[in-house]
Amino acid sequence: MESAQTPISTDQSLRNRMRKFYETSEAYKNLLNQHNHVYLKSYVDLVDWYTPSDEYTLDLGCGNGISSKMLHDRGRNVVGVDISPLFLAETKKWENDTLKYFVGDALSLDFESEQFGVVCSNELIEHTPDVEATLLEMIRVTRKGGRIVVAGPNLCSPIMPLLDFTQMTFGRDGRPIWAETKQQAFKNLLKNTKLYFKKRFGQQPNFLYREPDLENQIIGGDADSTYIASPIDLEKFFRQQGLRIKKLCVGFGFKGKIMATFFPRTSLYISMVIEK
How far from 155 is each of 109, 200, 208, CA to CA, in Å? Predict the structure, then answer.
């Protein structure tokens, strides 16, 4: 599928289309409902292990709100924010004095500067049509000395298309959207390898975008993603803003820890901890 990595502009019309999609798509909400306690455990563990539990915590792009509730159940004072009131429909029954939910846009947060000691997000950054604006908002609402946690798929990793190509060579299926044929997997392997070296040795973050499928491919696999997420971009951007990278990558399980230790910028999953 040739459109998987076609750069696009981050114009207002795209922002409006994405907002409307998330506000109205029942099919996507049903897909999001698969993000249960088991699915979210690694993300919640990441936040819990690397940020103080007594800090006021913003869970940005919280989707169905379960991750915010899990963080709250571990003793945190949490605010969960998502752009879609549809996704947050079930969260009112969980709210109390230390767990609140709000509809809000990560590109323009309705919070005071330095309001939170922890700002965290899971599988948000690849869905934002303006990564720089989103990261600046996360930094703005984090207090001095506070921490930011960013988690999500590393869509620029050359390792995933290599795994796709290898397993398709042995007759297994590849990933929808990204590796529907061996030829597509191999092409994305070459493309991601080139992107990795270009980003790794470039001086500036290079936020690349794709046209999201907001109509036909509500099947997972980040069909609706717009930013081709890379931890290298995030690392460079946060450093330029004067923040410190506390953890470039945190691995879960034996294979994940090996990847995080030796190949943190090509790991399949972004799991970054930053201190302001």
Answer: 26, 15, 11
Question: What is the tally of structural domains in the chain?
Answer: 1
Query: Which one, of 21, 122, 110, lies nearest residue 66 by Cα?
Result: 122
In a domain, 183, yes or no: no
| Residue 187 lies inside a defined structural domain of this protein | no
DSSP state string for 142-202: EEEEEEEEEEEE-TT-SHHHHHHHHHHHTT----TTT-SSHHHHHHHHHHHHHHHHHHHH-
Closest CA to 273 of 230, 253, 243, 240: 243
Task: Give which of 33, 32, 34, 57 is closest to 47, Cα–Cα.
Answer: 57
Between 216 and 267, the more confident residue is 267
Name the token pair of 96: 């109390």
Over residues 115-121, mean pLDDT: 98
Q: What is the CATH classification number for the domain harbouring 268?
A: 3.40.50.150
Q: Is residue 175 part of a domain?
A: no
What is the pLDDT at residue 218?
Answer: 65
Q: Show the domain range for 58.
A: 2-157+205-275
